[in-house]
Amino acid sequence: MKTHQDCPSCGHKGCLTVFDDGGSFCHSCGKTSGNSKNRTIMTDTPEVLTSRKEAFRGISKEVAEFYGITVDYKDGEAVRHSYPYPHATKYRYLPKDFSRNSGFTNDHLFGMNKFNSSTSKAITIAEGEIDTASVYEMLGKKWPVVGLPGAGVSDKLIRNCYAWLNGFNKIIVATDSDDAGNKAAQKIANAFPGKVYRVRMTKHKDPNEFLTSGHITDFNFAWVNAEKYVPQGIYNTLPQFKQILRDEEANVYIPYPIETLNDICKGLMQGHLTVITGPEGQGKTEIMRMFEYHILANHPTVPIAILHMEESKKTTLVSLASYMLGVNLRDPDHTVPQATIDDAIDKLTKSENLYLFEFGVDDDPLAILEKVRYFKEACGCKYIFIDPIQQLSYGKDADSTEEQTLTKISVQLERLATEFNIGIVVTAHVNDDGATRSSRMIGKSASVRLDLSRDHMNPDPDIRNITNISVSKNRPLGPTGFGGTVKFDPASFTLKEV
Question: Can you state the percent helix, strand and coil of the chain, rounding each to 5?
């Protein structure tokens, strides 16, 4: 019997099985020839894998049954493995064909539904289903083990499994000792800083080889002595330096919707903390919203996360829709139908590029740092907006002062922006002397500082609705000075450059 042949009927590659008697069956178009019309390629009832070591590479029947792994037989010969995931079943046509898994997605962990989160101090993540079962076997079936669906770790997998994995104190990664395995470990370590440990496998390249070679004690020793993951970040060679110089991710930005501001700053920079400052009533929130809408409307492939702590989520969405429709939807007497507003938000966020989030008054202020990591690692956000930063200190730890809390947050936000190459934009109130309120470090940590001024009590509405922007700090490029003027339009509740 020959498998993975090309089908002459449909033209697809690697989908035709040719039997010894000359008959054939196409797994793509279903066409048969010869005696194959009477053949069944798979039995109706899959059989549980037996405990024969040669049949399943050292994995016992008990472990196979625990994970629900089954094998389909054809004429007494194993032809397909089935691996049930929480959301779908994945098939492996022997010896190693995963191409016929239409509808299966690599965004869940194998075996995740077999263990409850937080019921063990440690969870082990292997690479693939066979290695998962192998690790569970070698650990004596005492510790929870789950598996990656492939060598890569997608953002959606992290997002789907984040809360479940985060319930464990320790995450032990037992991926292969190759480039793909290292990248997977790095991705998991970035999502769960301080929790991840790596099993160093030097004797064999993967767990199943330890099992089939009988070196179970060696693997267990490596597992018990798993090393805390040290992120990459030390560079010493010329090739590394050249790679840094050719890094296309450096100096990435989106132009501001204010041309005068672009003349000085080029745009809203990734990899930097931008602080929008001014006394209360200067329009800091609306300037930030102008930037948010600009990204959503003109750069739909760029995900952003938004936190406005001085307004409701509904107000945030309604205000963005006001830009979309050119109507002041915050006026309770507006006559725009709800369906029209819904449609505007649908068009603005149809690529799922907007993440609204909350931050409660009782939340630990430093938890904002974990949220930033989550939005970067799990959601792929390129920009995160926080308005205003001083609100974070209201839920401060009793052992810290407001100044200490905001100082720590400001410094860490700048570091996260640099480490993850994301743009973090915050608003900050200032004192009468122009220093950022509660902590001067807010302004000092900024790479870019935009200062707003407005004569908001002027009797002339034209003057009252004018806001001037000054760039007082511009670490990425250097130039400072006048950054443009915007005017507020009460009829649409939007800002436009003058």
Answer: 35, 25, 45
* Residue 316: half-sphere exposure toward Cβ, Cα within 13 Å: 20
Peptide bond preceding 279 in cis form (omega within 30 of 0):
no
How confident is residue 32, by pLDDT bands cut at 50, 70 and 90?
Answer: low
CA distance linking residue 429 with residue 446, whole number of Å: 14
- Beta strand extents in 190-323 (DSSP E only): 196-198, 227-228, 253-254, 268-269, 273-278, 304-308
pLDDT digit string, tens, across residues 277-330 = 998 888 899 999 999 999 999 999 999 999 999 999 999 999 999 999 999 999
Boundary of a domain, candidates 212, 228, 244: 228
Could you tell me if 26 and 135 lie in one domain?
A: no
pLDDT in tens, 106-128: 999 999 999 988 778 899 999 99
Closest CA to 420 of 450, 392, 386, 378: 378
Contact 8, 28 (CB under 8 A): no
Q: What is the CATH number of the domain that holds 486?
A: 3.40.50.300
| Residue 223 and residue 263 in one domain | no
How many structural domains is the chain composed of? 3
What are the structure tokens assigned to 209, written together? 């080889």
Domain that holds residue 332: 253-497
